[in-house]
Each structure stands twice: as C-alpha cells, then as structure tokens.
Amino acid sequence: MDIFQQVIDPFMNVELLFLVATGTLAGIIVGAIPGLSVTMALALILPLTYSWDLLSALAVMLGVYYGGVFGGSRASILVNIPGAPSSVATSFDGYPLSQLGEARLALTLTTIYSFIGGIIGVIVLAAATPLVSSIAIDFGQQDYFLLTMIGLLLISSLSKGSMVKGIFSACIGVILGLVGIDSLGAGPRFTFDTTILLNGIDFIVVILGLFGMSEVLYQIYILKDEKKKAVLTKIAAPSLRFILKFFPLSLRVSIMGVLIGALPGAGGEIASLLGYDHAKKTFKNPNRPFGEGAHAGVVAPEASNNAAIGGALIPVLTLGIPGDAVTAIFIGALFIHGLQPGPQLMQENGELFWFMVGSSFLSNIFLIIFGLLFVSIFVKIIDVPKQLLYPIIAVITVIGAYAINNSLGDVVWMIGFGIAGLAMRMNGVPVAPLILGMILGPLMETSFRRQYLITQGGGDFFLSFINSPISLVLTVFFIIMLVSQTQALKFIKNLST
Amino acid sequence: MKIKTIDFSYVFMLAVGIFILIQTLLISQENLLAPASGTFIPFIISILIIISSLFGGFKSMIENQNAAKDDKAPKEKNSTGGKGQMTNVLIFISGICIYIGALPLLTFIPATVLFLIGTIYYLGKISFTVNLIVSATTTIVAFVLFAEIFNIPLP
Questions:
Q1: ipTM attached to this prediction
Q2: 8 Å CB contact between B12 and B68
C-alpha cells in the first residue's frame, strides 16, 4: 500500500503534475530541435534545480528525459536530421515516409509506440530491477567487448550501397572516438601534438556536423533538382487494428531496449539501432522494404529507445552506474541533493525510487497527450519553404554547437564535420556507421585491452569468451551475427550447392 | 586502363588508411602489436581500411570497365547536384564562416539577422518582406529561447 501511495504521489500533487508536464513538453521541444540533445537540456536544467527540493527536480528532469528522447524522432521524420542520437534509426524509414506523404502517420505511430515502449520500460524498471541489475553487474570486460562488436556488425545493415564504404565510415568513427588521452595508457593519441585534442572530440559536435550542417549543405546542393514533394494525408488516427499490428514487435523491441538500456555504456542509441535491425529481420510482410518507408521501421526504434530509459535508470538507482550521459547527469542531481546512488539508496530511500517510477508513468502519459496534440504543428515544418528552413536550421546548429562549451571553436569543428559529411554523402559514404563507430569504438577498445590485461593474454584470454554463461551466449550470438551480416552465409550456401 | 575507370573515393580511403597507419606508428612508447597497447586497435583499423579500400577499388574498377565495354553508364553516381548547386553550397559555407567571424564583433542579434537575410535572399524564391519578417522573428525567438530561458550566454 505504501508503495502504491508513493507511485501515485506525483499524480495527486498539482505542483508535481505541472512540473512533469512542463518538463515533458520542454523535452519534446528541445528534442525536436536538431542539434539540441536531451543531455544538453538536462545539463542546462541541473544548475536551475540546485535550490529546488529533490522531488521537484527529479520530476522535471524525468519529464525532460522522456520528452527529449521522444522529441528527437520529430526532426528525424520531418527533416531527416535526428534530434537526438537515439533517433538516428528512426530517420531510416521516417524520412522516406515523410517524403511519401505519410509524415502524419509516422508521427502518430511513433507517439503511440514511444508511449508503449516507455510504459513497458517503466514496468520493467519497477518489477525486474533486482533481476536485470544482477545480470548487468555480472558482465565482464569480455562481455562488453562482444556486445560492442555485435553493435559494430550492424554496419552492414546501416550501409546502403557499398559495404566497403560503410566499413570505412565506421573505422573513421572508431578512430575519432579514440582521439585524445588514452584512458588506460595515459598517452596522447592522434592529437598532432596539440592540446585542443587532448580531451577528445565532442560527440555532440560530430552529431551536429554530420546530421545537422551536412544535411543543410546537401539539401542546398540538391535544392533545384526535381524532388518528390511531401503530400500530407489526413491520417491523424489510424485504426486500432492497424496500430495493434505492430504490438508484438513493439513488445519484443521494448524488452530488448530495456535490457540494452540497463547495460552501462549502451543506451538509447544502441537500443534503437538494434530494435530497427530486429524489425528488419523479423517483421514479416512490411508495407514497403525497410529503408523506403516501412511503418515497422519507425515503430521499432522508437519503442526501443523509450523503453531503454527505464532500463538505463536501473543500474543508476541500484548500482550507481550510469547507462549513458543522461543518467550520469541524474547521478549528479542525486549527489547535489545529498544522496549516494547505489544499493544503499534503494534501502534507505526506497520511496524515492517509487516516486521516480510514478513520475515516469506520468511523463509517458503527458508524452502521448502532447505528441498527439502537436502532430499538426510538427507536420507544418514540412510546408515551410526550404529556402527559409535551411538557413534557420544552420543558425540552430551553430547555437547548439556553441552551447556545448560556450566556444566558437566547437562551432568551427561542427562546420568542419558538416563539410566532411557533405563530401561523404556526395561520394556514397554513409554517415550513420561513423556515429556508431564513435559510440562503440572506445568502449570496444577499452574492454578488449582490460580483458587482455586481466587474463594476461594467451589461452586464458580466449577461454574467457566461453567460460561463463553470459559470455558463451554473447559469443554464440556474435558468431551468428557475423555469419548472417556478412557474405559468409552466402559463401557457405554456394559451397553447399 | 583508362583513368576514368578509377573511383577516386577509394583512392581517398586508401590515403586515409595509410595516414592513420603512419599516425599510429608515430604514437610513442607503445609496442605496436601488443594487444593491450594503445596502438593495437588503431593499427588493426588502419589495416582494415587499407585492405577494404583496395578491395573496393579493384571491384569498382572491374565493374566500371565492364560497364564501359557494354556502353553503360558508370554504376556509382551518387551526387545529383551540378556546378551551379556546388556554387550555392560554397557560397552558403562562406556565409556561415562570415557569420561565425561576425558573431563576436556584431553580437548575436545583428549577426544572425544579417546572416539569415543574406542567405535566404541568395537561395531565392522568398519575397524580401517575408525574408525580413522571418529573419527578425527567428532571431528574436532564438535569443529569448536560448539566452533567456535556457541561459546559454550567446556571443
């Protein structure tokens, strides 16, 4: 009974209701603006909450978190610029849907399944916290290495056209992720003897450049070409039967998302990419091929990345380990308010956990209300003449890059990545694998080296990949992925016939 | 072998791979091939880029030669813009560079209004009145949102 009261506490308090609603709306708006990440929004909000009581601060921050992750899909669908890293996969089919005149349907579907994914994430957060955290805590370095390698194998799914160019893009991403001080060896790498690269290259700058500025430049490059104009159909409320068609898929990818979200270092970005890949492989009879406007192609990543939020909060609250940058800010917020995240938090401040569960439920309810109410407003972005839209987006990306460190240096870097992204697009080199490589590369390298040092190399190193149930499952999964994602399967089939 | 059968993007990829390999070799105090060293993964990555670019280059060359024999157009052609569009892009990039340079001198509002008016005017098809209204409104909204609400100290 106590737990139930704590869960519904945010529903009964007008001030908390208002704060969650405001946070969710602000998150949707910030997430929808290309280049403004939910991480940045939370980082900016954190100083404002110093003087607030903890519950109010958490209510706003959870609202921004859910709203921001969801809001990222708006720009992905409408202008092919992911509003957040976790929305990259949504653009693969979201933007083609928009071009085919089904933007409204895509926005409605993503709203409904973001809500469903978010709710599933919260349910798992509430019900399975001890189980998932015990799995995550047992992960060894070899398991992280395998997990990141599985993620990198997704390159073949992301590479439209030349696989070689996809590999090149991912490799460049890995190298960019390794720029700066070596976290294990403490020496500088790829810094060209300058100090400005010692801290590495900011991921948000690269995202802004490759997905913001380069998109603007590429659109200007093809501006006068004949292009299919988006024709909006009035599909505001798809039938219940149509919506339910994706429910089994959303359940699978949501569970996948919540588990991935619970793994430290693997957040919504990886969850959405894996969710998309899962849909591509398992969803039978899509309305169109994936990548050309498949409805399941927007449902899966959105359900998965919103479910990942619930998962990401599990290790934060039970172990004190952040799943991604956003949850790291959450840990900062708890520290500011005198709390020590970890197992003791659950024992001493259990009510706080149940309050967060309640606030998360509430945020998802506001998410679906605002998401469905504002469909028309977001759709109108398409009707804005491109000659007006692209200079405005350029200004927003400039502000976004500047806001990271209040430095024009970051803006210059962002423009550099924008020009590089334009060159990549013009030569058929996909940019998404570069981002994937940059996210996964450092984690892959660190876990590989740590495991090698722990086992002191040799046979023990290789045995470590099969000597625990988790490692064995991941190794088998990795081999299956390797065979299925590359041409090895085709080669084996050819040999057998 | 005709020079036009070479896809220069693979040549560029090969050059990048070699550049990364050289940079990896320049990382001091590391045993290049020791798996626990900070150079091992970059070394593997550079080799992977070199091998895949050579593979891709040769494959593309053979495909292009076969296409040339059959009087077909080259298979890979991704860009859809022409010379005029590239000029637009270069002018737009120049505009952004001037805008970045002007930000500390003119401050955010005048620099942004001028940048928006200039680029929207150059890209065309928008009346000057609409251009002025949109540029001014966007700048003010952006300033209020970022500087006043989000507390980002704009230049």
A1: 0.88
A2: no
